[in-house]
């Protein structure tokens, strides 16, 4: 081997060593540096709000969805997500998250107004049967756990004060009134607890069109079609199919990929 060949080999070997050392340093540095910590729900909320103000509604939706996945979603998160979906023309998802926000904050007038407004965008106008007396009275009962706790505390305090006032009563009428009051208080507590527990899981069609079948699978009889924004009550579900009931009483099975649903475990 002549001198020029030897110099060429040594130069190539030196470059190989330097390159390998550089790659090793990069790999070690990447492994040693800690990964970026995930954003907190508050930071995600701020990011979503900023993206919404800039008109980046898809980015805003992504930020709000990440908050929901953490299990710390509030009525405000669902409300903002619904507005972001509405700006993207996704009326089904907008209705769903407005209903989720309404369940968490049922007395909020902005949520109620927007929900009514977006519902007018749905093409399926499903006539609901007239509610009975029990259903109308149920509208005045607590909708969620927080309202239920407040209501129970109010009943307990009020009944305790009345019991103290009637503690030394000797008149038969006062004694009878006290028993009636205690009985009505217990009935109110039971009715409120049953009402809250009986709140049905709900869903909204998110696809442009969804077929409703007589059973699980498209091989069954196609009963009717629903369109984006159609709301339903969730009666049963499997891995890929939902058994739904509309406000007019019609029932059937729909593919779960074509709807947004609220399962009881997520409340």
Give an account of the 3D structure.
By secondary structure, the chain is an alpha+beta fold. It has 3 domains: 41-119, Alpha Horseshoe (Serine Threonine Protein Phosphatase 5, Tetratricopeptide repeat); 144-197; 202-266, Roll (SH3 type barrels), CATH 2.30.30. It is 55% helix and 13% strand. It has helices spanning 3-32, 41-53, 57-69, 75-87, 91-104, 109-119, 133-138, 145-165, 172-197; strands at residues 202-205, 209-213, 222-227, 231-237, 241-245, 251-255, 259-261. The chain has a 5-stranded antiparallel beta sheet. Helix 2 (41-53) packs antiparallel against helix 3 and helix 5 (91-104) packs antiparallel against helix 6 (109-119). It is globular, with a radius of gyration of 30 Å. The termini are far apart.
What order do the helices and strands come in, and which of them pair?
Blueprint: H1 3-32, H2 41-53, H3 57-69, H4 75-87, H5 91-104, H6 109-119, H7 133-138, H8 145-165, H9 172-197, E1 202-205, E2 209-213, E3 222-227, E4 231-237, E5 241-245, E6 251-255, E7 259-261
Antiparallel strand pairs: 1-4, 1-7, 2-3, 4-5, 5-6
């Amino acid at each position: 081997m002549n001198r020029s060949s030897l110099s060429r080999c040594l130069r190539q070997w030196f470059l190989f060593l330097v390159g390998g050392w550089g790659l090793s340093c990069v790999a070690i540095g990447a492994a040693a540096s800690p990964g970026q910590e995930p954003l907190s729900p508050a930071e995600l909320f701020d990011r979503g709000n900023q993206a919404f103000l800039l008109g980046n509604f898809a980015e805003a939706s992504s930020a709000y969805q990440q908050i929901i996945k953490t299990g710390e979603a509030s009525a405000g998160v669902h409300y903002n997500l619904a507005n972001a979906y509405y700006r993207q023309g996704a009326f089904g998802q907008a209705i769903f998250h407005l209903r989720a926000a309404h369940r968490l904050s049922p007395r909020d007038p902005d949520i109620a107004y927007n929900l009514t407004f977006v519902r007018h965008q749905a093409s399926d106008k499903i006539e609901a049967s007239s509610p009975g007396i029990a259903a109308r009275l149920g509208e005045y009962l607590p909708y969620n756990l927080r309202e239920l706790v407040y209501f129970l505390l109010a009943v307990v305090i009020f009944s305790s004060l009345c019991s103290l006032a009637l503690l030394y009563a000797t008149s038969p009428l006062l004694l009878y009134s006290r028993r009636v009051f205690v009985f009505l208080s217990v009935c109110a507590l039971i009715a409120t607890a049953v009402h809250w527990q009986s709140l049905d899981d709900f869903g909204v069609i998110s696809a442009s069109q969804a077929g409703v079948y007589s059973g699980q699978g498209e091989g069954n009889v196609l009963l009717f079609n629903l369109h984006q924004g159609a709301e339903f009550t969730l009666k049963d579900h499997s891995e890929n199919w939902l058994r739904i009931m509309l406000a007019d009483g019609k029932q059937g099975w729909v593919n779960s990929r074509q709807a947004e649903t609220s399962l009881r475990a997520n409340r």
